[in-house]
């Protein structure tokens, strides 16, 4: 059971093909600020089953994805809330549901890499060393232009309990 137990809000649901345009707009916005890694619409469409969105007023206001890594390990990534929708709990609700989705899909270790550790702490994650996830280092970090000066913080979901 994840930290937040409230049930799914209206508008939180699996992403569909018609959401991709709005998702791409959010990702582009934050990728330009260096807060998210870029992801192409084609890539997101191909992996739609990994994404959840929150729709409000006919548009995607928040999104996030669960990325299977290896064995029991999955990464929560591409978490974004539209600027004018922030601070209302949408991000927390989305991460909480991604955690539930990951556990239901059989992943017992859920992690993220982030520059927003304060936010993920409120979602039940704790700071850990990236060396706990060699699969991530081999698959993604090795290819990253910022690998020598990475400023992202690795965090593991523990429901708020220290590992
Ligand atoms: C980070 C982000 C997803 C947070 O979404 P949000 O909907 O504004 O967050 P919420 O309203 O659900 O906040 C949940 C809690 O986190 C806290 N929080 C939110 N952003 C925070 C931050 N930057 N630092 C510290 N705490 C933060 C809130 O105060 C709240 O705490 P509470 O539960 O004690 O009240 C959003 O700011 C965003 O999209 N940022 C740009 C993209 C990004 O950086 N994504 C993360 C990449 S891994």
Structure report:
- With 163 residues, this protein is an alpha+beta fold.
- It has one domain (12-157): 3-Layer(aba) Sandwich (Aminopeptidase), CATH 3.40.630.30.
- Helix content is 28%, strand content 27%.
- Strands 1-2-3-4-5-7-6 form a 7-stranded mixed sheet.
- Helix 3 (90-104) links the parallel strand 4 (73-81) and strand 5.
- The longest helix is centred in the middle third of the chain and has 15 residues, at 90-104.
- The chain is globular, with a radius of gyration of 15 Å.
- It starts with 11 loop residues before the first strand and ends in a 6-residue tail after the last strand.
- Mean pLDDT is 89; it is low at 1-6.
- Biggest sheet descriptor: 7 strands, mixed
Tally of distinct domains: 1
Q: What is the helix/strand order? A: EHHEEEHEHEHE
Compute the number of strand runs. Answer: 7
CATH superfamily assignment?
Gcn5-related N-acetyltransferase (GNAT)
- CATH A-level architecture: 3-Layer(aba) Sandwich
Helix count from the secondary structure assignment = 5
Structural class: alpha+beta
CATH fold-level name? Aminopeptidase
Q: Give the names of the bound compounds.
A: coenzyme A
Helix fraction, binned, reads 25-40%
State the distance separating the first and last CA atoms. 16 Å
Just give the CATH class. Alpha Beta
For the largest beta sheet, what order do the strands appear in spatially?
1-2-3-4-5-7-6
Uncertain segments are 1-6
Question: Roughly what is the average pLDDT, rounded to an integer?
Answer: 89
Gyration radius, in Å: 15 Å
Global shape? globular
Estimated share of beta-strand residues = 25-35%
């Amino acid at each position: 059971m994840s930290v937040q137990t409230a049930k799914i809000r209206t508008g939180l649901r699996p992403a569909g093909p018609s959401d991709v345009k709005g998702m791409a707009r959010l990702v582009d916005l934050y990728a330009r600020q260096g807060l998210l890694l870029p992801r192409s619409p084609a890539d997101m469409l191909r992996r739609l089953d990994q994404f959840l969105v929150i729709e409000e007023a006919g548009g995607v206001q928040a999104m996030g994805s669960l990325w299977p890594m290896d064995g029991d390990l999955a990464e929560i990534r591409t978490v974004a809330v539209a600027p004018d929708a922030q601070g209302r709990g949408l991000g927390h609700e989305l991460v909480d549901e991604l955690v539930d989705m990951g556990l239901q899909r059989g992943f017992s270790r859920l992690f993220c890499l982030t520059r927003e550790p304060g936010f993920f702490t409120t979602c039940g994650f704790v700071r850990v060393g990236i060396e706990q996830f060699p699969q991530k280092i081999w698959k993604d970090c090795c290819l990253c232009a910022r690998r020598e000066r990475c400023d992202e913080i690795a965090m593991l979901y523990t429901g708020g309990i220290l590992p």
